[in-house]
Specification:
Elements: H1 3-22, H2 40-61, H3 67-85
Helix pairs in contact: 2-3
């Protein structure tokens, strides 16, 4: 084999693995964490969905609570979760 062909083969062998690695799909962010969403819109949508689920659960626990009280309770729960998920120094 000529030098040119050898060099071409070596270049090709070096490029193919890099191309294959670039095509590997990344795992989606966890749906449990709003901060894992990549855009502010996605974060807001995730937060809204979590609030709806929380409010539904809280209302099922105690249907005598007002909607405002249920909302406040859920907001407090979500704040607590965010504080627990933040890395500590």
């Amino acid at each position: 084999m000529s030098r040119c062909r050898k060099f071409s083969m070596l270049m090709l062998l070096g490029v193919v693995p890099m191309f294959a690695m670039a095509q590997t799909p990344q795992p989606p962010p966890s749906s449990d964490e709003p901060s894992a969403a990549s855009s502010p819109h996605q974060q807001r949508a995730m937060h809204d969905q979590m609030m709806k689920e929380c409010m539904k659960k809280e209302h099922q626990k105690d249907s005598s609570m007002s909607k405002d009280q249920v909302k406040k309770d859920c907001e407090n729960q979500m704040k607590m979760q965010e504080q627990q998920q933040q890395p500590r120094d």
